[in-house]
Design goal:
It is built from seven helices and three strands. By secondary structure, the protein is mostly helical. A three-stranded mixed β-sheet has the order 1-3-2, with helices on both faces. Helix 3 (58-72) packs across helix 5. The mean pLDDT is 83.
């Protein structure tokens, strides 16, 4: 076997070995209960939907929900939380934005839908927002807050809601 062939085979073996291992995602520390995420998300979504119009195009909504459903099936079992129910909505606003609320509500702006070039880009954006929910980023960030004023605001949101 020539040195070049051996080097190539060795390189391929290394690539296969490293690509076979899966990255394990560890959620950040979180002192809040999953029920707190659900409560914050529900209350916030009621306020948002009272302020902004929702897109009424059933075809677009069904399409986005289909992508979200496919993505939710790909969530690793150790990160799956059956209490989270993903809901995908489109706000009828021209901004190019998307975001997620604790507990599973994901909002896309109509303006964002006008700039994505294909389904893969849209799926990437939705998956990104879903990761915020799955990893409970909002309440994890709230866990890290040490400022007494911020703690008071958190207590009002979560406890008195």
């Amino acid at each position: 076997m020539t040195k070049r062939v051996f080097s190539t085979l060795f390189f391929i073996l290394i690539l296969v070995t490293f690509s076979a291992s899966q990255t394990v995602i560890k959620p950040p520390e979180n002192k809040f209960k999953v029920e707190d995420d659900l409560k914050i998300g529900k209350e916030t979504s009621e306020k948002i939907e009272g302020q902004y119009p929702l897109l009424k195009d059933e075809e677009v909504i069904k399409y986005i929900q289909g992508i979200g459903l496919k993505l939710s099936r790909a969530i690793p079992p150790y990160l799956t939380n059956n209490k989270f129910q993903f809901v995908f909505k489109v706000l009828d606003v021209s901004d190019e934005n998307a975001w997620a609320l604790p507990g599973g509500r994901i909002y896309l702006h109509r303006g964002l839908l006008t700039i994505v070039r294909n389904e893969s880009e849209l799926a990437g954006i939705i998956a990104h927002e879903m990761s915020h929910v799955i990893l409970r980023h909002t309440t994890a960030k709230m866990t890290q807050i040490e400022n007494p004023v911020n703690k008071l605001i958190i207590n009002i949101l979560v406890l008195e809601g």
